Amino acid sequence: xxxxxxxAWRDFYIGMVGAGASLTGLTFVAIALDPRxxxxxxxLRLRAASAVWCFVSVMFIGVAVLTPRPFAALAAGIVGVxxxxxxxxxxxxxxxxRVFRQPHPGATVFRAVGNILGFVxxxxxxFSLIDVEQGWVFATLALACVIMLSSGIFASxxxxxxxxxxxxxxxxx
Length: 173
Prior knowledge:
Layout: H1 6-33, H2 35-40, H3 42-66, H4 71-99, H5 109-131, H6 135-162
């Protein structure tokens, strides 16, 4: 099978959609364990939102790749816009936090750069998928999925570890 064709990547992206959907559901279960604590705690809100957005992004990338032509161009455009918008949003938030010393609990530059890279790759891959069906586009989107899954799993793990922990005992990192 030609690695430059969408058919060669089909199984991978079916797995990504399933993983993103499953992990989104599990994150909602974790949020349901103590929604009031998450609502009151900026760090937990940040981790919950980060996990959900990473997992939902993975689902959207997978759906865009699996969508048949001619509708694939619309789905790829949505992924492109969403990816670049997410990268801009995270960049502004990180710059505001570091340069202007505004509080942004639980975020490190390393984690922010990883998330920004994932969203940039999704944006570039999404816009490229509109017009080009080559292996490098599918590989770029696959790398974006792996980065986002890793980031989302890490954020949701930290969220689950801190749900139910009294505020005085909670670590800030």
